[in-house]
Amino acid sequence: MHGLTGYADRWSVKQGGSIRFMVSSQAGREYTLRFVRHLCADPNPAGPGYAEQAMPTTLDGVKPGRAQPAELGSYGHATLPADLRGGVRLAATIWPTTPDKGRQGVLSLRVGDWQMALGIGPNGGAMAEVNGARIEIGRRLLAQRWYDIVAELGLDGVLRVTQTPHAPFGDAGDAKGTAALPPAGAAEIFIAKLPVGRDAHFNGKIERPRLSRPSPAGAAIAAWDFAIGIQSQVATDTGPHAAHAKLINLPTRAMTGSNWTGAVHDWKSAPEQYGAIHFHDDDQGPLGWDESFALDVPADWPSGFYAAHIRNEAGEDFLPFIVRPAVPQSDVLLLVPTFSYQVYGCYVRPGRGAEIAERAAAWGALPQTPDMNPQFGLSCYNHHSDGSGVSLVSQHRPMLDTRPRQFALMDPTNGGSGTARWVADNYIDLWLRTIGVAHDVITDHDLHLEGLDALAPYRLVIAAQHPEYHSERMMQAFEDHLGMGGRLMYLGGNGFYWRAEPSTDQPDTLEIRRAEGGIRVWETMPGESYHAFGGGYGGLWRRIGRSSHKLVGISFSVQGKHLGFPYKFIDGITDPRVAFMAQGLDVSAGVTFGDAGFMGGGAAGFELDSVNTKYGTPPNALVVAKGIVIHPDYGWVNEDMLVHRHPLPQQDWSCADMTFFETPAGGAVFSVGSMTYAGSLMVQGGKSVLSQLTENVVRRFADPAPFCLP
Fold first, then answer.
1. β-sheet with 655-662: strand ranges across
2. Rounded CA gap, 295 and 273, in Å?
3. In this structure, which of 53, 246, 267, 674 has its CB flanked by the most CB atoms within 10 Å?
């Protein structure tokens, strides 16, 4: 477990603005604090060379430590003022996913020292518990089937529990016992959790949890309708006391209920059929830690990549953040894909910590990984413990795989850095500074918040190494910027691929729904492809009608091992329209370049994008070079496939297409189509053919002279 870690309250801060940091130090140990600007965040001694610049502040020095909790499991919590001495009836409709996992709370009460719970017992049947006395039905609940379960405690002290399947399969049952009645006083309510204990969270869907007097009178006390307020983190109580429940740790809403007919797939059309919430025992939301320190960023700090560096005898961590300009200071903008950072953050890969330990020690890299720290939750590339996909992630938690001075994977090539996300995008920042191009830096989160206003001051926007996830507002901003004559350079691969939308009432949280197609480790269930946040259809931007082919000319077409291969110039490079691109270079057809790099050993690799006019590549798009990868581990993306054979020759889909086109408003787009391209920019100190070609594009795209359509 990480002995010292934390997070910032946002991904970026303007010069002169304030940013807050939350730190947890095991056993309350003191720690030292300083701030650094990362000039090169790659710890690989064979890489460009790790470099940081100390940024002294009045906060520097020893800080008091405190341990702060990170508890997994989603649930609802409310307070009920009603007096329950007249007896209690708890009921809910459930769709359990791990009924064999032991005790799980569905609906629980606590009045002083008295507790009552309706849930699943140790043997997998519906149970009722009162002050430790338990009755459990002898028939096991079956996974992913709907049940009505009821626990009733009458004035006579008789405790009963029943489970009634919606589709009987020999799994109905009841049990009976005796228990103590509740005392006077307000009740604390827990939905999907037992009143005490960290290991008693429910896995599965809950619908219509309700509390009433015992039969036959059955007067309602509380009834939570999950079809109300689907976009929020509040479960609405329609009962007389309005005991609305706060949802903790991001359970998943807009889930089909027991009455879903299949006739509608958009929850907004029939919310009454989406009255279920899916709770998980390993959900993790915003941690809500107390502030440890806050930085007022000096107005003279340059825009770029920064971190708060904390250290003590238990370990160290870098808490990353971007400093953005208070007012634009350049015509060139580097856009850091923090939506992708957040979706991938806390990607638990079993055994990764042990795998990297020796190399991390040799390089002086950060050794902590998500698999070593499960308390911080999962990424959207993981499954929950019940097998469902993770669709909600918060930025308010330590993401130990999204750090400077860190490598994300064991690069199989000689001298490879194994970098991703923060460190890979910092290569682009380093390269721009190396070639003397002044630029500002902002994040995806800034773009979503401000829309076109974030891009409008800039002539050239550079999308970084892996800009995979975007909201509708972000996609519109890109389109509008190009429509105004802006220029866009896409220096990565697998970009503009999935939709991701933030919550309106909890904007640190992102949601994805993996609908229909796409390379994905899980898929949404039928009827659950519309986002709870905003209500839009989820999945691939291609399926939603905004294919990246239309925006940047290319789209994700092949994926394989973290290996890099060279590009070759093709005839398109000799077109007069791209003469600026070829200046000072031998661009004869067949000449290779980009055959070295710090990510996989070459510029074209890992995940590649190619042109396809069928999906919207503009008719004036010009392919100037191709990184063709014919390798047994490289396979096509499934959204391209209608039958078992690919419709195109392999060299036309298993490749990175370096593409250029002009826009009607006098702007232009340049795309490289590879996730390892950024790792080749600093080869030979930034003086390679690949670097020179890319620099030629940057300088022409930053030139105000308009481009003309052919």
1. 440-443, 332-336, 460-463, 487-490, 668-671, 655-662, 622-628, 567-569, 592-593
2. 47
3. 674
- In 457-554, where do the E strands start and end? 460-463, 469-470, 487-490, 498-499, 501-502, 509-511
pLDDT tens digits for 483-523? Answer: 999 999 999 999 999 999 999 888 899 999 999 889 999 99
Angle ∠(29,31,33) on CA atoms, nearest 5? 160
User: In this predicted structure, what is the pLDDT of residue 458?
Assistant: 98
Give the relative orientation of helices 421-434 and 689-702 as an angle to the nearest 10 degrees: 80
Helix (H, G, I), strand (E, B), or coil: what is residue 527?
A: coil
Q: Which domains does the chain have, with CATH numbers?
A: 4-68+289-322 (2.60.40.10), 75-279 (2.60.120), 323-702 (3.40.50.880)
Q: Which two tokens stand for residue 621?
A: 């798009």
* Integer Cα distance of 65 and 510 in angstroms: 30
How does strand 158-165 pair with strand 51-54?
A: unpaired
d(CA 50, CA 598): 13
Tokens of 439: 């630029």
Q: Which of 292, 407, 420 is nearest to 43 (CA)?
A: 407
What tokens appear for 631 in the block?
A: 């390798």
CB atoms within 10 A of CB 343: 22
Bin 561: left if φ > 0, else alpha if -120 < ψ < 50, else beta: beta
Q: How far is CA 322 from the centre of its chain?
A: 18
- Looking at residue 517, the DSSP 8-state letter turns out to be S
- Tell how far CA 238 is from the center of its chain: 33
The answer to whether 489 touches 362, Cβ cutoff 8 Å, is: no
Containing 339, the helix (H) or strand (E) segment is helix 338-344
CA atoms of 451 and 236, how far apart (whole Å): 32
Q: What are phi and psi of 98, to 5 degrees?
A: -135, 65
> Sheet harboring 555-565: ordered strands across?
604-610, 555-565, 635-636
**3-class SS at 342?**
helix
Closest CA to 502 of 7, 6, 10: 10
156 token code pair: 């006579």
Distance from C-alpha of 114 to C-alpha of 123, rounded to nearest angstrom: 24
DSSP 28: G
Given phi > 0 = left and psi -120 to 50 = alpha, else beta, which region is 584?
left
Q: Helix, strand or coil for residue 430?
A: helix
Q: Which two tokens stand for residue 348?
A: 């638990």
- φ/ψ bin of 52: left (φ > 0), alpha (ψ from -120 to 50), beta (otherwise): beta
Q: Give residue 198's pLDDT.
A: 66
The count of other CB atoms within 10 Å of the CB of residue 167 is 9
Does pTM surpass 0.70?
Answer: yes
Residues in the chain predicted with pLDDT less than 50, given as ranges, are none
Would you state the torsion angle of the CA atoms of residues 105, 110, 116, 120, taken in this order, to the nearest 10 degrees? 0
What does the pLDDT read at residue 80? 94
- Measured in degrees and rounded to the nearest 5, phi and psi for residue 379 equal -105, 175
How far is residue 243 from each of residues 76, 215, 240, 259, 428, measured CA to CA in Å? 11, 22, 8, 25, 52
Chain segment 110-127, per-residue pLDDT in tens: 999 999 999 999 999 999
What is 448-474 written as a DSSP string? HHHTHHHHTT-SEEEE-S---EE-HHH
What is the spatial distance between Cα 426 and Cα 389, in angstroms, rounded to a whole number? 30
What residue spans of 529-581 are helical by DSSP H?
541-544, 548-552
Q: Are 121 and 95 in contact (CB under 8 A)?
A: no
Mind listing the pLDDT tens digit for each residue in 382-415?
999 999 999 999 999 999 999 999 998 899 998 8
* CB contact at 8 A, 129 and 122: no
